[in-house]
Amino acid sequence: MLVRYKKSCEKIAMGLLSFMPEERELKKLKETMNIYQVNPNWHLFLWKEGEAFVGLVGIEADEGHFTLQHISVNPSFHGEGIGRAMVEKIQQLMPNQKIKGTAVTEAFLEKCSEAKFALI
């Protein structure tokens, strides 16, 4: 289940975000979390399986499209389709908008393109 990020889940979000290689350093993690907290166009969501948060997806919304900035899944849950499910849910939240990736997330989106995402 996709859940909008709340400040009370900051440590969980930082832990999940730290699975991304470019986000491992604490200083970088804090900078990234600050962007999501102060920029109204940046939205962070957590994925919950049962009682545990196991994934994270972050987007930057723009007119007519959104950019997948971050996507991370706890390694214990890799291969279960959680990443794809998170992107599908985001796409449902933002119908009629195309999705694009960053240098880091584009390969993931291409891998999942058979899920019929509206890619830019």
From TrEMBL:
Record-annotated membrane-spanning stretches: none
Is Transferase among this UniProt entry's keywords? Answer: yes
N-acetyltransferase domain residues = 1-120
Q: Does the keyword Acyltransferase apply?
A: yes
The protein's superkingdom reads: Bacteria
- Cross-referenced Pfam families, in alphabetical order? Acetyltransf_1
Task: Name the UniProt key words of this record, in alphabetical order.
Answer: Acyltransferase, Transferase
Q: Where is the signal peptide?
A: none
The cross-references to CDD domains, in alphabetical order and at most eight, read: NAT_SF
Q: Which PANTHER family match?
A: PEPTIDYL-LYSINE N-ACETYLTRANSFERASE YJAB (PTHR43800)
Q: What is this protein called?
A: GNAT family N-acetyltransferase
